[in-house]
Write a structure and sequence with these properties.
Elements: H1 16-20, H2 27-44, H3 61-83, H4 95-101, H5 109-128, H6 132-135, E1 138-141, E2 144-147, H7 148-170
Antiparallel strand pairs: 1-2
Length: 172
């Protein structure tokens, strides 16, 4: 399953840039490679750097990283529901409500890295268990059709998007 296999009708246009940022490897390879990239990055960050925000009113690095964790969990959950053929429309989530409630400022690099590894392993486990037919199943999230496989690529693209922002705005 590759990004080029997706149809634009399988996801909300809001996610188009996330999907475009994913390479042309298969989904499981993208999830694995993303795990290596994020793990390497997190290992290189100091605990002190986690409290840095590049401007007044912007999220700290810790808040941004915990946002990536929260979003992956939400996308996993949606993928599971759609894979199981649950047709119940799923509401969106408000990241601006989640971030202040995340207690990110109390987290250490070790905590965030440990949680990231667990979440990504859960994503890998979920998507490894799905066959081609299941990956093509479509549900509704945030008022738009969404396929199970699109959610896998959105997980990858969302992380890549935020790593790019981190490189551009949070690192020297």
């Amino acid at each position: 399953m590759r990004v080029s296999d997706l149809s634009a009708s399988e996801y909300n246009p809001y996610y188009h840039n996330y999907i475009l940022s994913v390479g042309e490897s298969d989904l499981l390879t993208e999830l694995e490679q993303g795990k290596e990239v994020m793990t390497t990055f997190l290992e290189s960050v100091s605990d002190e750097r986690l409290s840095y925000a590049y401007a007044e009113g912007k999220w700290t690095l810790a808040e941004l990283l915990v946002h990536v964790l929260d979003a992956e969990r939400v996308f996993q959950y949606r993928a599971l529901r759609f894979a199981r053929n649950d047709k119940t429309p799923l509401a969106g989530f408000d990241q601006d409500v989640y971030v202040p409630e995340s207690n990110a400022e109390k987290r250490t690099k070790k905590d965030i890295l440990e949680e990231y590894r667990a979440i990504r392993e859960a994503s890998l486990s979920l998507f490894r268990s799905l066959d081609d037919e299941t990956l093509k199943r479509v549900g509704e999230a945030s008022g738009s059709p969404m396929s199970t496989r699109a959610l896998g690529f959105i997980i990858c693209g969302h992380q890549a998007h935020h790593l790019k922002i981190i490189q551009e705005r949070y690192l020297d």
